[in-house]
Amino acid sequence: MPEIEFRSDVTVELVRSSASDSDVLFAARVSTQGEQTLEAAQDGHDATSRDRGLINYLMRDRHGSPFEHNSMTFYVQAPIFVFREFMRHRMASYNEESGRYRELRPVFYVPSDDRNLVQVGKPGAYDFLPGTPEQTALVRDETVRASTQAFEAYQRMLDAGVAREVARIVLPLNIYSSMYVTVNARSLMNFLSLRTKREGSQFPSFPQREIEMCAEKMEDVWQTLMPLTHEAFQSKGRVAP
């Protein structure tokens, strides 16, 4: 049986992109300038105060469609329960690895020691606080025990000739999967507004920490690609246009 691995992190990598602030300006200015090529719009283009002002105006007044004319594809490795939260948003195109067609790797998520464990308050108005050393040890020990037992059962069924799509039913939600996520900036802003907790947000969000870890990495990439758009998103209360 392959060696079982436990991780406490997620992987988010930009695979390819066609995304810049110029894409937003190009799409928005067709309203007043008519047809132009993207190459002409970008030719010798450095951001000006007029460009920043237009993007801020679009964000403030929620003229959202110019923020859709771009694309980013991310490769994500995370536990399956995180993917279920991703797909609730219906804001991107997803392609996930298949447990029907390949044998799943024995890589499982276990919370890091600094992951908050105790929920205080009621849904919609709660905080998570650190656990005691005893709670932290309990979570780690039980996660390792259950994951190990589940994977051993999965392997026994495979060794007996049971189909992968049947054997996988015993595996827990903390097993890692991988997927490609393709999204535009408008949809990404909607995702970030709900899956990150930030000071200055107009609407409060209470994301589960593991999907917030993915969202933070995606935001770091996007901020580099589209700094003016990210700046406007942040300054306008992190509300998607």
TrEMBL record:
Membership in a protein family: Belongs to the thymidylate synthase ThyX family.
Cofactor binding note from Swiss-Prot or TrEMBL: Binds 4 FAD per tetramer. Each FAD binding site is formed by three monomers.
Name the record gives this protein: Flavin-dependent thymidylate synthase
GO biological process terms on file: dTMP biosynthetic process; dTTP biosynthetic process; methylation
Catalyzed reactions per annotation: dUMP + (6R)-5,10-methylene-5,6,7,8-tetrahydrofolate + NADPH + H(+) = dTMP + (6S)-5,6,7,8-tetrahydrofolate + NADP(+)
Binding residues annotated for dUMP, in chain numbering: 85-88, 96-100, 168, 195
Function statement: Catalyzes the reductive methylation of 2'-deoxyuridine-5'-monophosphate (dUMP) to 2'-deoxythymidine-5'-monophosphate (dTMP) while utilizing 5,10-methylenetetrahydrofolate (mTHF) as the methyl donor, and NADPH and FADH(2) as the reductant.
Top enzyme category: transferase
Protein EC: 2.1.1.148
GO MF entries: flavin adenine dinucleotide binding; NADPH binding; thymidylate synthase (FAD) activity; thymidylate synthase activity
Highest taxon above the source species: Bacteria
Record-linked InterPro entries: Thymidylate_synthase_ThyX (IPR003669), Thymidylate_synthase_ThyX_sf (IPR036098)
UniProt-annotated catalytic positions: 195 (involved in ionization of n3 of dump, leading to its activation)
Binding site for FAD: 65, 88-90, 96, 184-186, 190
Pathway(s) where this gene product acts: Pyrimidine metabolism; dTTP biosynthesis
Entry keyword set: FAD, Flavoprotein, Methyltransferase, NADP, Nucleotide biosynthesis, Transferase
